Amino acid sequence: MTGTPTHSGPRTLYDKIFDAHVVDRQPDGTCLLYIDRHLVHEVTSPQAFEGLRMSGRKVRRPDQTIAVPDHNVPTTPDRVVGIENPEGRIQVAELDRNARDFGVNYYPMNDIRQGIVHIVGPEQGWTLPGMTVVCGDSHTATHGAFGALAHGIGTSEVEHVLATQTLIQKKSKNMKVEITGKLRPGVTAKDITLSIIGHTGTAGGTGYVIEYCGQAIRDLSMEGRMTVCNMAIEGGARAGLIAPDEKTFEYVKGRPHAPKGAAWEAALAWWKTLFSDEGAHWDKVVTIRGEDIEPVVTWGTSPEDVLPIGATVPAPQDFGGGKVEAARRSLDYMGLKPGMKLTDIKVDAVFIGSCTNGRIEDLRAAAEVLRGKHLAPGVRGMVVPGSGLVRMQAEEEGLDRIFTDAGFEWRLAGCSMCLGMNPDQLAPGERCAATSNRNFEGRMGRGGRTHLMSPVMAAAAAVTGHLTDVRELMAAPVDA
Amino acid sequence: MDKFTTLTGIAAPMPLVNIDTDMIIPKQFLKTIHRSGLGKNLFDEMRYFPDGTENPAFVLNKPAYRDAQIIVAGDNFGCGSSREHAPWALLDYGIRCVISTSFADIFYNNCFKNGILPIVLPPDAVEALMKDAENGANARLTVDLESQTVTGADGTAYPFEMDPHRKHCLLNGLDDIGLTMEKAPAIEAYEARIAQSQPWV
Ligand code: SF4
């Protein structure tokens, strides 16, 4: 995994951010990279803090370290009285203790600002263009939407960053993914990101940092851009990013931890230099026409198992190599037969939430489809806002009423069913239309079956009880 | 961290592609606050039936592979979540080396922090070693990090590439944090520079 060496000629956005953070460079290209923001959650941090204690080390920059419990917090209102599951309770209590002992920024479980770490970071203005952002969580790529270099790290690396505020890195290669033109009605950021993975495969980005560009990406809101970058990891990339522009600056301005006054002006001047230069070198380029992207769903147990909603379930023989066996296993696990129409797949549950699609715009889009409608008989639905503030905003807009009137449960913020570490899980064999990012076996509960899709597509499935092309339900074009 | 120099052991074949970290260690075992003790739940949902009894069809439950120290796996091993619990579970079970055509990035990194050697070989070499591994306990592979070779049961040696820094750390069992701490002056200089030029960071 050698990468493009640093050079003085035209550089990509990734080159620029990487170069700006090099503390030390070894002859073999191994760099020590300074980390501007370190996000921490309860599942991947206890062993790292334990390591610090055992070696008598401190957190080098508690002011740049932000902790929030999200993965196994319950999302039912009774959580204010405590977490029932003893192990989950211990992990959250550990995070409380570690945040206190080491003096890092902390949003405890019952703080209104608590939520999924990748939603809280941008919301509070911790995530800024040009920064390096890491977290012991693969979906850290989300923050790339701001033109930040953001990626997931393991727990040993969490400990390394806590102790030194740096990370040992080698440069990745540069990959450009361009989405040209305009999206058609009913097609959203989620369809873009799933379609890219369907195109490149889950290992297509391995060894690369992806920059997403093109008119269809420019046209996306910040929420939509976060959805796209969020799943860079499902495409195998170390990180995904999007050059900052006026939308980015507008989103950041005035957030609690965004720069103010003269500092804002100085920051803005630098941020405006954050784009890939004309003539920069790309190791790989993928171009997709925005007009060609359809509303998609996944049929299997890998995020690359993506098809347009109008398609039919594939057969294992449609694939090659090791994928034949994997597809057979997937179909068996998913309980699907080759040749059946995707729209004939019935669902038992609908999950709207996660760091991919748990932001206000996602809830607005889903609510728009659900307004005045109801869950199909026998289908259960759950909406889990990505943060306490998203939840509050949605309530101010009356979205919670649309969801509850439609028969959905309206929950408190957290990761919830996305990985089913808390009590929100699928039962064996239960099939779910989900706005999250992973359809792995057992991800949402042992034996649970996950179909990934956009919030509007999940809402459409909720109404009809089977996978559905949302465009059939749309009175007016849904703005996403 | 334990050193990794040479290893001769049984290799278990797992030809499935895209073996993700949710398969390696399902989320219900992530609630621990320790690194050890995860080996019994390695590949839990493939290894055990829902009632907790062993699935005899799963490779590590077959007598020939119970003591496997090496896994030969399909493409893109370790994709998905960044959980370091995956290498912790492998290590706790006794796996010290995984051979595949490709690894997911974070998992690959995590292996080196825990004394596990992930080896990337070309598809035909992985295929040959997979066939070897399917021969059961006869399939003892030898991995030599110093010379960067895997030697199959029939004596065929396959060379592999390895980053020199990572190799050095694995061979000597070195801890990254200690090494980086020695660079504190460079870190301080960087911080001082940024405090001047980008005070908002
Ligand atoms: S919402 Fe899901 S993918 Fe996102 S951080 Fe939480 S568990 Fe991970």
From TrEMBL, chain A:
EC number(s) from the headed UniProt entry:
4.2.1.33
Residues binding [4Fe-4S] cluster are C355, C415, C418
Signal peptide interval: none
Query: Tell me, what is an example of a GO biological process annotation in this record?
Result: L-leucine biosynthetic process
Catalytic reactions on record: (2R,3S)-3-isopropylmalate = (2S)-2-isopropylmalate
Q: How is the cofactor bound?
A: Binds 1 [4Fe-4S] cluster per subunit.
Whether Lyase counts among this entry's keywords is yes
- Entry's SUPFAM superfamilies? Aconitase iron-sulfur domain
Keyword hit for Acetylation: no
GO MF annotation terms? 3-isopropylmalate dehydratase activity; 4 iron, 4 sulfur cluster binding; metal ion binding
Q: Where is the Aconitase/3-isopropylmalate dehydratase large subunit alpha/beta/alpha domain?
A: 15-465
Source species, domain of life: Bacteria
Enzyme class, first EC level, given as a word: lyase
Cofactor(s) annotated in UniProt: [4Fe-4S] cluster
Taking the record's annotation, the residue ranges forming a coiled coil are none
Q: In which pathway does it act?
A: Amino-acid biosynthesis; L-leucine biosynthesis; L-leucine from 3-methyl-2-oxobutanoate: step 2/4
Report the Pfam families cross-referenced here. Answer: Aconitase (PF00330)
Query: Any idea which UniProt keywords this protein has?
Result: 4Fe-4S, Amino-acid biosynthesis, Branched-chain amino acid biosynthesis, Iron, Iron-sulfur, Leucine biosynthesis, Lyase, Metal-binding
Q: How does it assemble?
A: Heterodimer of LeuC and LeuD.
Protein role: Catalyzes the isomerization between 2-isopropylmalate and 3-isopropylmalate, via the formation of 2-isopropylmaleate.
Q: Family per UniProt? A: Belongs to the aconitase/IPM isomerase family. LeuC type 1 subfamily.
UniProt protein name: 3-isopropylmalate dehydratase large subunit
Write down the species.
Paracoccus salipaludis
TrEMBL record, chain B:
- What InterPro entries does its record include? 3-IsopropMal_deHydase_ssu (IPR004431), Aconitase/3IPM_dehydase_swvl (IPR015928), AconitaseA/IPMdHydase_ssu_swvl (IPR000573), IPMI_Swivel (IPR033940), LeuD (IPR050075)
Secretion signal span: none
Q: Which residues form a coiled coil?
A: none
Could you tell me the keywords of this UniProt record? Answer: Amino-acid biosynthesis, Branched-chain amino acid biosynthesis, Leucine biosynthesis, Lyase
- For this chain's UniProt record, which GO biological process terms are given? L-leucine biosynthetic process
The UniProt entry's GO CC annotations, sorted and at most eight, read: 3-isopropylmalate dehydratase complex
**Pathway(s):** Amino-acid biosynthesis; L-leucine biosynthesis; L-leucine from 3-methyl-2-oxobutanoate: step 2/4
Question: Tell me, what is one Gene Ontology molecular-function annotation carried by this entry?
Answer: 3-isopropylmalate dehydratase activity
Q: Does the keyword Phosphoprotein apply?
A: no
Q: Which Pfam families did the record assign?
A: Aconitase_C
- Enumerate the spans annotated as Aconitase A/isopropylmalate dehydratase small subunit swivel domain: 1-122
Question: EC number(s)?
Answer: 4.2.1.33
Q: Does the keyword Lyase apply?
A: yes
Q: Which reaction does it catalyse?
A: (2R,3S)-3-isopropylmalate = (2S)-2-isopropylmalate
Q: How does it assemble?
A: Heterodimer of LeuC and LeuD.
Query: What biological function has been recorded for the protein in this entry?
Result: Catalyzes the isomerization between 2-isopropylmalate and 3-isopropylmalate, via the formation of 2-isopropylmaleate.
Q: Which family does it belong to?
A: Belongs to the LeuD family. LeuD type 1 subfamily.
The record's section on PANTHER family has: 3-ISOPROPYLMALATE DEHYDRATASE SMALL SUBUNIT, 3-ISOPROPYLMALATE DEHYDRATASE SMALL SUBUNIT 2-RELATED-RELATED
Q: Which HAMAP family match?
A: LeuD_type1
Descriptive protein name? 3-isopropylmalate dehydratase small subunit
Source lineage: Bacteria, Pseudomonadati, Pseudomonadota, Alphaproteobacteria, Rhodobacterales
